[in-house]
């Protein structure tokens, strides 16, 4: 049975259903009853004055329906909630998620009804994680169904399912080696506690992107990614993703594989960057204190 995701899309769908049903009932039933009963009232321009609730529904239904269509099938706005995708995306970036990149899905249920394409390695995706299905996470897709992933201290080897270990001659079946290359011991000023991080670079497919790793100055008692080794085999209909902030991301290394039905869409564009107050201001919430469009652009 498909899961129901109680996000903003669910409540938008609920509002569209309620206002739509009321609008249709009034148009084809209640309005006739008012006319027959002689209970129709008109304003000074000769237009019918609807009962208050019906008037609200008839006014807002077209707007809600259009927003639902745009948000469910084209682009959905999303706020980056943490630093797990530093240095490409920061807490405070607002982005647009391409909802049709991987197929058309029903709102609230997220069930795919029209297939468009499959997620590709290197894509930045927004999804519902398996351990918190009502939340939306953003990470970089590293492995697709059937891949065997081997991580060895900064070197990532992806062995596609079509490789049996003896014949790697088929196009697209060769093992993929991705090496994290050191760029600088400096990071962007937006990276929190930047003195403990170094900047690296990776190329996966046609995606070229920056990463950050903890450096030797960060003695926090845990294993750093550049000292770690592990292997994972991705089951069918599942995906493996990691944050670009490799030592500051809870991702598939911690909570496992992403379900295909949990994928929301492909992160496409940054459009605004907002800074918030350091302390809660109103009802325990941090309020915006600065807005910038300088980071606007496509997401790599």
Automatic annotation (TrEMBL):
Alphabetical list of Pfam families matching this protein: Peptidase_S26
Principal EC category: hydrolase
Protein name in the entry: Signal peptidase I
Organism field: Kangiella taiwanensis
Keywords: Hydrolase, Membrane, Protease, Transmembrane, Transmembrane helix
Gene that specifies this protein: lepB
Catalytic activity field: Cleavage of hydrophobic, N-terminal signal or leader sequences from secreted and periplasmic proteins
Stored InterPro entries: LexA/Signal_pep-like_sf, Pept_S26A_signal_pept_1, Peptidase_S26
Gene3D superfamilies referenced in this protein's UniProt entry, alphabetically: Umud Fragment, subunit A
């Amino acid at each position: 049975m498909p899961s129901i995701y109680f996000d903003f899309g669910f409540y938008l769908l609920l509002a569209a259903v309620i206002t739509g049903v009321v609008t249709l009932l009034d148009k084809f039933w209640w309005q006739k009853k008012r006319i027959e009963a002689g209970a129709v009232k008109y304003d000074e321009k000769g237009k019918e004055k609807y009962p208050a609730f019906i008037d609200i529904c008839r006014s807002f239904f077209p707007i809600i329906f259009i927003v639902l269509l745009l948000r469910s099938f084209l682009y959905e706005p999303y706020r980056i909630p943490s630093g797990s995708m530093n240095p490409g995306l920061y807490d405070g970036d607002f982005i647009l998620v391409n909802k049709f990149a991987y197929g058309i899905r029903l709102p609230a249920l997220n069930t795919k009804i029209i297939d468009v394409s499959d997620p590709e390695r290197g894509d930045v995706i927004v999804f519902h994680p398996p351990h918190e299905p009502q939340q939306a996470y953003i990470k970089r897709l590293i492995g697709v169904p059937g891949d065997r992933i081997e991580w060895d201290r900064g070197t990532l080897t992806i062995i596609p399912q079509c490789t049996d270990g003896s014949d790697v001659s088929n196009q697209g079946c060769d093992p993929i080696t991705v090496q994290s290359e050191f760029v600088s011991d400096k990071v962007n000023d937006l990276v929190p506690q930047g003195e403990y991080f170094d900047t690296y670079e990776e190329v996966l497919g046609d995606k070229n992107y920056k990463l950050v790793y903890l450096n030797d100055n960060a003695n926090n008692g845990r294993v750093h990614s550049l000292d770690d080794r592990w292997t994972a085999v991705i089951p069918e209909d599942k995906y493996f993703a990691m944050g670009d902030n490799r030592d500051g991301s809870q991702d598939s290394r911690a909570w496992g594989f992403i379900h295909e039905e949990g994928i929301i869409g492909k992160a496409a564009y940054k459009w605004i960057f907002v800074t918030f107050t350091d302390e809660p201001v109103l009802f325990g919430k941090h309020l915006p204190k600065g807005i910038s469009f300088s980071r606007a652009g496509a997401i790599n």
